[in-house]
Amino acid sequence: MGGISFGRMVLAGLVLLHAGLLVWALMGLAEWIAGEVPWPAVTNPLFPRPMLLFHWLSVIAASTAFLAGLTLRWRGTPIAVALGYAAMGLVCLIETIHYLVHDTRWLAMAAEYAAYLAIGSWLFLSETARSTFRRAPA
């Protein structure tokens, strides 16, 4: 079968995901800084300002690590992304325990963690990620 490989499709999907996360986080950070913005608010009003700052900065760090790492073909990208996801996971845990009130908050947290584990596993274990980030096979 010709055409693009499954690994390349996953990589393209991760580019779209991280680009979207970066745009969302920059919109949220602009809201945090300016207060009023010309687009619909993306900030959860239940979260205090210091929590929001850590929230937006952790998303910016993780998404930038992935996109810059891909652009530079940096071998440290999987570790940098894992550290960004760890920060995002900590934020998610604090937000879920202390601020969120909806009935599905624990399910949402579990889904978020599952996504981090799936993406992280792919970054560390797939041959496509190894060749993209110039790492030797395991």
Can you put this structure into words, describing what you see?
It is a single chain. With 138 residues, the chain is mostly helical. It is 74% helix and 0% strand. It contains five helices and no strands. Helix 3 packs antiparallel against helix 4. The chain is globular, with a radius of gyration of 16 Å.
Question: How would you summarize this macromolecular structure in one to three sentences?
Answer:
By secondary structure, the protein is mostly helical. The chain is 74% helix and 0% strand.
The total count of strands amounts to 0
Q: Could you tell me the radius of gyration in angstroms?
A: 16 Å
Spell out the helices and strands N to C: HHHHH
Number of helices: 5
Using the alpha-carbon principal axes, give the shape.
globular
Average pLDDT reading = 94
Class computed from helices, strands and strand pairing: mainly alpha
Residue windows where pLDDT falls under 50 for at least 5 positions:
none
Distance separating the two termini: 27 Å
Helix content: over 70%
Largest sheet: none
What fraction of the residues are assigned to beta strands by DSSP? under 5%
